[in-house]
Inverse folding.
Protein backbone atom coordinates (compact mmCIF):
# COMPACT_ATOMS: atom_id res chain seq x y z
CA UNK A 1 0.00 0.00 0.00
CA UNK A 2 1.27 3.45 -0.89
CA UNK A 3 1.48 5.94 1.96
CA UNK A 4 0.36 9.54 1.47
CA UNK A 5 3.97 10.73 1.64
CA UNK A 6 4.93 8.44 -1.27
CA UNK A 7 2.09 9.80 -3.39
CA UNK A 8 2.99 13.38 -2.66
CA UNK A 9 3.47 15.34 -5.85
CA UNK A 10 4.04 18.40 -3.68
CA UNK A 11 7.70 17.44 -3.75
CA UNK A 12 8.08 18.94 -7.23
CA UNK A 13 6.39 22.21 -6.42
CA UNK A 14 6.12 24.92 -3.83
CA UNK A 15 3.53 25.89 -1.22
CA UNK A 16 2.81 29.26 0.39
CA UNK A 17 1.95 29.13 4.09
CA UNK A 18 0.71 32.29 5.82
CA UNK A 19 1.02 32.69 9.56
CA UNK A 20 4.05 30.46 9.23
CA UNK A 21 5.73 31.43 12.48
CA UNK A 22 2.85 30.51 14.80
CA UNK A 23 2.41 27.10 16.38
CA UNK A 24 0.31 25.51 13.62
CA UNK A 25 2.21 27.40 10.92
CA UNK A 26 5.57 26.06 12.07
CA UNK A 27 4.19 22.52 12.15
CA UNK A 28 2.92 22.88 8.57
CA UNK A 29 6.26 24.24 7.36
CA UNK A 30 8.18 21.46 9.09
CA UNK A 31 5.96 18.71 7.72
CA UNK A 32 6.07 20.03 4.17
CA UNK A 33 9.83 20.52 4.37
CA UNK A 34 10.35 16.94 5.52
CA UNK A 35 8.45 15.82 2.44
CA UNK A 36 10.72 17.79 0.13
CA UNK A 37 8.38 20.65 -0.70
CA UNK A 38 9.74 24.16 -1.09
CA UNK A 39 7.84 26.37 1.34
CA UNK A 40 7.24 30.08 1.01
CA UNK A 41 6.83 30.98 4.67
CA UNK A 42 4.93 34.21 5.26
CA UNK A 43 4.98 36.12 8.52
CA UNK A 44 5.24 39.62 9.95
CA UNK A 45 8.27 39.14 12.17
CA UNK A 46 11.65 39.05 10.49
CA UNK A 47 13.26 37.51 13.57
CA UNK A 48 10.64 34.77 13.82
CA UNK A 49 11.00 33.98 10.12
CA UNK A 50 14.77 33.77 10.47
CA UNK A 51 14.38 31.41 13.42
CA UNK A 52 11.98 29.27 11.39
CA UNK A 53 14.37 29.03 8.46
CA UNK A 54 17.23 28.23 10.86
CA UNK A 55 15.31 25.45 12.61
CA UNK A 56 13.90 23.80 9.48
CA UNK A 57 16.04 21.43 7.47
CA UNK A 58 14.22 21.82 4.15
CA UNK A 59 13.99 24.58 1.57
CA UNK A 60 12.13 27.43 3.26
CA UNK A 61 11.91 30.85 1.62
CA UNK A 62 10.85 33.58 4.05
CA UNK A 63 8.41 36.28 2.95
CA UNK A 64 8.02 39.08 5.46
CA UNK A 65 4.75 40.95 5.06
CA UNK A 66 1.44 41.75 6.74
CA UNK A 67 -1.37 39.70 5.17
CA UNK A 68 -3.78 42.62 5.54
CA UNK A 69 -1.59 44.96 3.48
CA UNK A 70 -2.94 44.49 -0.07
CA UNK A 71 0.12 46.02 -1.72
CA UNK A 72 2.53 43.86 0.25
CA UNK A 73 0.53 40.74 -0.56
CA UNK A 74 0.72 41.54 -4.25
CA UNK A 75 4.47 42.14 -4.01
CA UNK A 76 4.88 38.80 -2.25
CA UNK A 77 3.06 37.04 -5.07
CA UNK A 78 5.16 38.89 -7.62
CA UNK A 79 8.19 37.47 -5.85
CA UNK A 80 6.70 33.97 -5.88
CA UNK A 81 5.80 34.36 -9.56
CA UNK A 82 9.47 34.94 -10.36
CA UNK A 83 11.01 32.47 -7.90
CA UNK A 84 8.73 29.55 -8.84
CA UNK A 85 10.43 29.37 -12.23
CA UNK A 86 13.72 28.45 -10.57
CA UNK A 87 14.40 24.70 -10.79
CA UNK A 88 15.10 24.30 -7.07
CA UNK A 89 11.77 25.94 -6.17
CA UNK A 90 9.03 24.68 -8.47
CA UNK A 91 5.64 26.02 -9.48
CA UNK A 92 3.23 27.06 -6.77
CA UNK A 93 0.95 24.06 -6.21
CA UNK A 94 -0.42 24.87 -2.79
CA UNK A 95 -1.63 27.68 -0.55
CA UNK A 96 -2.40 27.45 3.15
CA UNK A 97 -4.30 30.43 4.53
CA UNK A 98 -3.28 29.92 8.13
CA UNK A 99 -2.80 33.49 9.36
CA UNK A 100 -5.55 34.54 11.72
CA UNK A 101 -6.45 36.28 14.93
CA UNK A 102 -9.13 35.75 17.55
CA UNK A 103 -10.45 38.80 19.40
CA UNK A 104 -12.91 38.00 22.16
CA UNK A 105 -15.64 40.56 22.90
CA UNK A 106 -19.37 40.47 23.60
CA UNK A 107 -21.73 42.12 21.11
CA UNK A 108 -22.05 45.36 23.07
CA UNK A 109 -18.28 45.77 23.29
CA UNK A 110 -17.59 44.83 19.67
CA UNK A 111 -16.97 48.11 17.93
CA UNK A 112 -16.80 48.37 14.16
CA UNK A 113 -13.01 48.57 14.20
CA UNK A 114 -12.80 45.21 15.91
CA UNK A 115 -15.24 43.68 13.45
CA UNK A 116 -13.39 45.11 10.45
CA UNK A 117 -10.06 43.93 11.84
CA UNK A 118 -11.35 40.39 12.28
CA UNK A 119 -12.75 40.37 8.75
CA UNK A 120 -9.52 41.81 7.36
CA UNK A 121 -7.21 39.31 9.02
CA UNK A 122 -9.35 36.19 8.87
CA UNK A 123 -11.26 36.62 5.64
CA UNK A 124 -10.29 39.43 3.26
CA UNK A 125 -6.59 38.66 3.37
CA UNK A 126 -7.25 34.97 2.75
CA UNK A 127 -9.52 35.89 -0.15
CA UNK A 128 -6.83 38.02 -1.79
CA UNK A 129 -4.32 35.19 -1.33
CA UNK A 130 -6.72 32.75 -3.04
CA UNK A 131 -7.28 35.19 -5.88
CA UNK A 132 -3.56 35.61 -6.57
CA UNK A 133 -2.54 32.00 -5.91
CA UNK A 134 -5.20 30.59 -8.21
CA UNK A 135 -3.86 32.79 -11.00
CA UNK A 136 -0.42 31.24 -10.57
CA UNK A 137 -1.91 27.73 -10.42
CA UNK A 138 -4.29 28.19 -13.36
CA UNK A 139 -1.63 27.85 -16.02
CA UNK A 140 -0.74 24.31 -14.94
CA UNK A 141 -4.39 23.57 -14.10
CA UNK A 142 -3.31 22.02 -10.84
CA UNK A 143 -3.28 23.18 -7.27
CA UNK A 144 -4.75 22.89 -3.80
CA UNK A 145 -5.82 25.57 -1.36
CA UNK A 146 -6.43 24.87 2.30
CA UNK A 147 -8.03 27.48 4.55
CA UNK A 148 -7.69 27.24 8.30
CA UNK A 149 -11.15 28.02 9.64
CA UNK A 150 -12.51 27.19 13.08
CA UNK A 151 -15.12 25.14 14.84
CA UNK A 152 -16.21 28.46 16.36
CA UNK A 153 -17.11 29.62 12.86
CA UNK A 154 -18.98 26.39 12.18
CA UNK A 155 -20.97 26.27 15.41
CA UNK A 156 -20.70 29.72 17.02
CA UNK A 157 -19.65 30.73 20.50
CA UNK A 158 -20.78 33.46 22.91
CA UNK A 159 -18.33 36.37 22.99
CA UNK A 160 -16.79 35.46 19.66
CA UNK A 161 -19.35 36.66 17.15
CA UNK A 162 -16.92 38.79 15.12
CA UNK A 163 -14.34 36.02 15.00
CA UNK A 164 -16.99 33.40 14.19
CA UNK A 165 -18.41 35.54 11.41
CA UNK A 166 -14.99 36.07 9.84
CA UNK A 167 -14.23 32.35 9.89
CA UNK A 168 -17.71 31.44 8.64
CA UNK A 169 -17.13 33.84 5.74
CA UNK A 170 -13.98 31.93 4.89
CA UNK A 171 -15.87 28.64 5.05
CA UNK A 172 -18.43 30.06 2.61
CA UNK A 173 -15.72 31.19 0.23
CA UNK A 174 -14.05 27.78 0.50
CA UNK A 175 -17.20 25.97 -0.60
CA UNK A 176 -17.99 28.43 -3.39
CA UNK A 177 -14.46 28.62 -4.79
CA UNK A 178 -14.20 24.82 -4.74
CA UNK A 179 -17.00 24.81 -7.31
CA UNK A 180 -15.64 27.77 -9.26
CA UNK A 181 -12.05 26.54 -9.50
CA UNK A 182 -12.72 22.83 -10.03
CA UNK A 183 -12.82 23.21 -13.84
CA UNK A 184 -9.21 24.39 -13.78
CA UNK A 185 -7.98 21.65 -11.48
CA UNK A 186 -7.72 23.65 -8.27
CA UNK A 187 -9.18 22.10 -5.13
CA UNK A 188 -10.26 24.25 -2.18
CA UNK A 189 -10.80 22.77 1.27
CA UNK A 190 -10.64 23.88 4.87
CA UNK A 191 -9.49 22.50 8.19
CA UNK A 192 -11.37 23.48 11.34
CA UNK A 193 -9.20 23.04 14.42
CA UNK A 194 -10.73 22.79 17.87
CA UNK A 195 -8.73 23.30 21.09
CA UNK A 196 -5.08 22.99 20.03
CA UNK A 197 -1.98 23.24 22.26
CA UNK A 198 -0.16 26.33 20.94
CA UNK A 199 1.15 29.62 22.31
CA UNK A 200 -2.39 30.96 21.96
CA UNK A 201 -3.81 28.45 24.46
CA UNK A 202 -0.79 28.22 26.76
CA UNK A 203 -2.35 30.66 29.25
CA UNK A 204 -5.36 28.44 30.00
CA UNK A 205 -5.14 27.13 33.57
CA UNK A 206 -6.12 23.62 34.68
CA UNK A 207 -9.67 24.59 35.61
CA UNK A 208 -10.25 26.24 32.25
CA UNK A 209 -8.81 23.23 30.48
CA UNK A 210 -11.08 20.85 32.37
CA UNK A 211 -14.11 22.90 31.40
CA UNK A 212 -13.07 22.82 27.75
CA UNK A 213 -12.16 19.14 27.78
CA UNK A 214 -15.60 18.33 29.21
CA UNK A 215 -17.00 19.54 25.88
CA UNK A 216 -14.62 17.45 23.78
CA UNK A 217 -15.59 13.83 23.14
CA UNK A 218 -11.94 12.73 23.18
CA UNK A 219 -11.35 14.70 26.43
CA UNK A 220 -8.01 16.19 25.42
CA UNK A 221 -6.40 18.96 23.40
CA UNK A 222 -5.11 18.47 19.88
CA UNK A 223 -1.60 19.26 18.71
CA UNK A 224 -0.33 21.57 15.99
CA UNK A 225 1.22 18.53 14.33
CA UNK A 226 -2.18 16.85 13.98
CA UNK A 227 -3.62 19.96 12.35
CA UNK A 228 -0.60 20.13 10.03
CA UNK A 229 -1.10 16.49 9.00
CA UNK A 230 -4.72 17.19 8.05
CA UNK A 231 -3.66 20.25 6.05
CA UNK A 232 -0.90 18.43 4.20
CA UNK A 233 -3.33 15.60 3.42
CA UNK A 234 -5.65 18.13 1.76
CA UNK A 235 -2.74 19.65 -0.19
CA UNK A 236 -1.60 16.22 -1.29
CA UNK A 237 -2.80 14.39 -4.38
CA UNK A 238 -3.86 11.64 -1.98
CA UNK A 239 -6.97 13.79 -1.47
CA UNK A 240 -7.46 14.68 -5.14
CA UNK A 241 -11.14 13.63 -5.07
CA UNK A 242 -11.90 15.90 -2.13
CA UNK A 243 -12.86 19.53 -2.60
CA UNK A 244 -15.25 22.00 -0.95
CA UNK A 245 -15.11 20.33 2.45
CA UNK A 246 -14.28 21.37 5.98
CA UNK A 247 -12.29 18.77 7.88
CA UNK A 248 -12.63 19.13 11.66
CA UNK A 249 -9.54 18.40 13.76
CA UNK A 250 -11.21 18.83 17.11
CA UNK A 251 -11.74 15.59 19.00
CA UNK A 252 -15.46 16.24 18.41
CA UNK A 253 -15.64 19.65 20.02
CA UNK A 254 -18.95 21.28 20.97
CA UNK A 255 -18.30 24.97 21.72
CA UNK B 1 9.54 35.63 -30.98
CA UNK B 2 7.87 39.05 -31.13
CA UNK B 3 5.37 40.20 -28.51
CA UNK B 4 2.59 39.86 -31.09
CA UNK B 5 3.59 36.24 -31.71
CA UNK B 6 3.82 35.60 -27.96
CA UNK B 7 0.34 37.06 -27.49
CA UNK B 8 -1.18 34.93 -30.24
CA UNK B 9 0.52 31.84 -28.84
CA UNK B 10 -0.71 32.65 -25.33
CA UNK B 11 -4.32 33.07 -26.46
CA UNK B 12 -4.12 29.93 -28.56
CA UNK B 13 -2.67 27.86 -25.71
CA UNK B 14 -4.98 29.20 -23.01
CA UNK B 15 -8.21 29.01 -24.99
CA UNK B 16 -7.32 25.93 -27.01
CA UNK B 17 -8.08 27.60 -30.34
CA UNK B 18 -6.20 27.89 -33.63
CA UNK B 19 -3.77 30.77 -33.87
CA UNK B 20 -5.53 32.25 -36.91
CA UNK B 21 -8.62 32.81 -34.76
CA UNK B 22 -6.67 35.15 -32.49
CA UNK B 23 -7.55 38.48 -34.06
CA UNK B 24 -7.89 41.89 -32.40
CA UNK B 25 -11.65 41.68 -32.83
CA UNK B 26 -12.00 38.43 -30.88
CA UNK B 27 -14.04 39.16 -27.75
CA UNK B 28 -14.63 37.45 -24.42
CA UNK B 29 -17.68 35.17 -24.29
CA UNK B 30 -18.25 35.30 -28.06
CA UNK B 31 -16.81 31.82 -28.56
CA UNK B 32 -17.43 28.89 -26.25
CA UNK B 33 -13.70 28.43 -25.67
CA UNK B 34 -13.34 31.90 -24.08
CA UNK B 35 -15.53 31.55 -21.02
CA UNK B 36 -14.84 32.64 -17.44
CA UNK B 37 -12.80 29.51 -16.71
CA UNK B 38 -10.61 29.91 -19.77
CA UNK B 39 -10.25 33.60 -18.95
CA UNK B 40 -8.48 32.70 -15.73
CA UNK B 41 -6.09 30.39 -17.57
CA UNK B 42 -5.55 33.14 -20.14
CA UNK B 43 -4.65 35.69 -17.47
CA UNK B 44 -2.22 33.22 -15.93
CA UNK B 45 -0.67 32.55 -19.35
CA UNK B 46 -0.32 36.25 -20.21
CA UNK B 47 1.19 37.05 -16.80
CA UNK B 48 3.75 34.29 -17.20
CA UNK B 49 4.62 34.95 -20.82
CA UNK B 50 5.03 38.70 -20.35
CA UNK B 51 6.33 38.53 -16.76
CA UNK B 52 3.72 40.89 -15.34
CA UNK B 53 1.13 40.81 -12.57
CA UNK B 54 -2.08 42.46 -13.64
CA UNK B 55 -4.37 44.55 -11.46
CA UNK B 56 -7.84 43.14 -10.87
CA UNK B 57 -9.44 46.08 -12.70
CA UNK B 58 -7.32 45.30 -15.77
CA UNK B 59 -8.40 41.67 -15.64
CA UNK B 60 -12.03 42.76 -15.57
CA UNK B 61 -11.41 45.10 -18.51
CA UNK B 62 -9.66 42.50 -20.68
CA UNK B 63 -12.64 41.85 -22.91
CA UNK B 64 -10.94 41.37 -26.28
CA UNK B 65 -7.60 40.69 -27.90
CA UNK B 66 -7.27 44.37 -28.78
CA UNK B 67 -8.03 45.31 -25.18
CA UNK B 68 -5.43 42.82 -23.95
CA UNK B 69 -2.79 44.56 -26.04
CA UNK B 70 -3.86 47.94 -24.75
CA UNK B 71 -3.76 46.78 -21.13
CA UNK B 72 -0.39 45.04 -21.51
CA UNK B 73 0.90 48.33 -22.87
CA UNK B 74 0.37 49.78 -19.39
CA UNK B 75 2.90 47.23 -18.18
CA UNK B 76 5.48 48.28 -20.78
CA UNK B 77 4.70 45.46 -23.19
CA UNK B 78 4.72 46.95 -26.68
CA UNK B 79 3.13 45.57 -29.85
Amino acid sequence: MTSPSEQLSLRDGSVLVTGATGGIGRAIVELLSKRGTTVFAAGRSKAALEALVESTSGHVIPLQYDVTDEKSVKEAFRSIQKQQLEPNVGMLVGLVNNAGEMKEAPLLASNMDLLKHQLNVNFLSAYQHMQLASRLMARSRHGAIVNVVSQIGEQGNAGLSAYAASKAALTGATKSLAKELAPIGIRVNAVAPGFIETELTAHYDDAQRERIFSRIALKKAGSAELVAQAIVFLLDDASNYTTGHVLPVDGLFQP
Amino acid sequence: MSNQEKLVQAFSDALGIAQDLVQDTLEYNTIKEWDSTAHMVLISELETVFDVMLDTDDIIDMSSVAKAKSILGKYDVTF
About this structure: The helical segments of chain B are 3-15, 36-49, 56-61, 65-73. The domain at 3-73 of chain B is CATH 1.10.1200.10 (Non-ribosomal Peptide Synthetase Peptidyl Carrier Protein; Chain A). Chain B has a mean pLDDT of 97. Chain B has one domain: 3-73.
